[in-house]
Each structure stands twice: as structure tokens, then as C-alpha cells.
From TrEMBL:
GO terms for biological process: gluconeogenesis; glyceraldehyde-3-phosphate biosynthetic process; glycerol catabolic process; glycolytic process. Pfam families: TIM. GO terms for cellular component: cytosol. Its EC number is 5.3.1.1. This is Triosephosphate isomerase. Keywords: Gluconeogenesis, Glycolysis, Isomerase. It comes from Apodospora peruviana. One of its GO terms (molecular function) is triose-phosphate isomerase activity. InterPro entries: Aldolase_TIM, TIM_sf, TrioseP_Isoase_bac/euk, Triosephosphate_isomerase, Triosephosphate_isomerase_AS. Homodimer. Belongs to the triosephosphate isomerase family.
Length: 247
């Protein structure tokens, strides 16, 4: 089965009602490759606004979700609340949540289980720090992150993997095509050995880390790069070029 190209936009904690409406209008008016699946993740406060204004065919993602059904969890949002609002995706395990908010592999795995079992698809992020890479530990770190989440996933059709080297996020320092392809191939190899041949063949593996309108086409040509998770550039008109990168 061919893997459909996938582009996610992670707005992080950016935007206003006005600017986010502008991004939505730009996407609604643009000619987007029908062979690319597009999902955008605004801050929680704007999820409903985006869902209301965005054209059908583009999905909306939360940037996080909690792993309890409901109750006294101040500041959190549940899987069923996302579904109730027409939000069918969430990002989980983003390195900013792992490093700044202290989310462990175990917490990310539990949230991934809760989301997928509750019917929400997950853009699950992994990636190494500069220190890990310089110590030659990139693959070891990614495999540890995969090993924590994998037993919690019953339905891999509900998961796309985003490989995001921490040193490339928001730094303007994009991984080389070879560096990205090497890790993507290693992730696929791990899935084949530890989950199944089918899951390895069908799971989309996205690259994230300073992707922009200029570098996206070259990255998109690689065999194991099935799309992108885009931060900064998802707020700009060039996001459309990234969506159309595999054309
Ligand atoms: C991200 O936050 O997921 C990301 C990839 O950010 P940027 O594209 O800005 O590096």
C-alpha cells in the first residue's frame, strides 16, 4: 500500500484570532495537492475557531491531550472533548513537551494509548538532542522512545511518526537529507523487527526540524520520508509549498 504524503502544521503557542483566521483563509484559497493529507495544530484556545472556518478535507489537531477520561485535572483537555469538537488528531511527545514540560517516555506512551483507543489519531514525535547525536546515540535514543510507546499502540493506522531532531527544531539548522533518511530507515527497520512488516511498510514517517519552502522538495524525494511536521513555516504562506512538495 502506498503511503499517502502527510504534512502537519504545528503552530505551537503562536497566533491571534486574526492571524489564525488569515492562515486558514490562505489554506482554504490555495490549490493543495489532493494526494497530501494535511493536518494543522493551532493552540487549544483556537481549535474550534479553526475547525469552524477550515475547509473540509483538512484536519485539525490538538498539540496535546490528557490520559484520563474526565474529572479534576485543571488545565487539561480530554480525548472525548476533542472528538466532541470535531478534532480528530493530536500531536504527542513533541520535544518541547518532553524537555520543557517534563513529559517522560512513559507519560507520552500512556497518552498515545488513551488517544488512539479513544478514536483520536496521533502525530507521535521522537528525536535526539545534539548531545545524543554527537555521542553517536541517535538511533539508540529513538529506539528507546519507540520501545516505550509501541506496546501501547493497538491500531498503528492511527499513528504517524514524526522524527524531529531537537537540534533542528526552530534553529534554522535542518538535518541533511542523508541524516534524515538514515534515521527514517532505522525507524522503519525497527518497526519491521518489533511490530510487523505491514506496520513498517504502511506507517508514515515525517521529518520535522526547520522545514521550509526551499528545502522541502529535496527531503520529500527520499524513500522513507513520507511528509513533514512543520513549526515556524506553517504560520507563513510558504506552508502551501511544503504541502505541495511531493508533486
Ligand atoms: C516543530 O515544532 O515540530 C518543528 C518542526 O518546528 P520548526 O519547523 O520551526 O523547526
Amino acid at each position: 500500500m502506498a503511503r499517502k504524503f502527510f504534512v502537519g502544521g504545528n503552530f505551537k503557542m503562536n497566533g491571534t484570532i486574526e492571524s489564525i483566521k488569515g492562515i486558514v483563509k490562505n489554506l482554504n484559497d490555495a490549490k493543495l495537492d489532493p494526494n497530501t493529507e494535511v493536518v494543522i495544530a493551532p493552540p487549544a484556545l483556537y481549535l474550534l475557531l479553526v475547525r469552524e472556518h477550515l475547509k473540509n478535507g483538512i484536519e485539525v489537531a490538538a498539540q496535546n491531550v490528557f490520559d484520563k477520561p474526565n474529572g479534576a485535572f485543571t488545565g487539561e483537555i480530554s480525548v472525548s472533548q476533542l472528538k466532541d469538537s470535531g478534532i480528530n488528531w493530536t500531536i504527542l511527545g513533541h520535544s518541547e513537551r518532553r524537555t520543557i514540560l517534563g513529559e517522560s517516555d512513559k507519560v507520552v506512551a500512556s497518552k498515545t494509548k488513551f488517544a488512539t483507543e479513544g478514536g483520536i489519531s496521533v502525530i507521535w514525535c521522537c528525536g535526539e538532542s545534539l548531545e545524543d547525536r554527537e555521542a553517536g546515540k541517535t538511533i539508540e535514543v529513538i529506539e528507546k522512545q519507540l520501545a516505550a510507546v509501541s506496546p501501547k499502540i493497538g491500531d498503528w493506522k492511527k499513528v504517524v511518526i514524526a522524527y524531529e531532531p531537537i537540534w533542528a527544531i526552530g534553529t534554522g539548522k535542518v538535518a541533511t537529507v542523508q541524516q534524515a533518511q538514515e534515521v527514517h530507515a532505522a525507524i522503519r527497520k525497527w518497526l519491521k523487527a518489533n511490530v510487523s512488516e505491514t506496520v513498517a511498510a504502511e506507517t508514515r514517517i515525517l521529518y520535522g526540524g526547520s522545514v521550509n519552502g526551499k528545502n522541502c522538495k529535496e527531503l520529500a524525494k527520499e524513500e522513507d520520508i513520507d511528509g513533514f511536521l512543520v513549526g515556524g513555516a506553517s504560520l507563513k504562506p510558504e506552508f502551501v509549498d511544503i504541502i505541495n512538495a511531493s508533486q
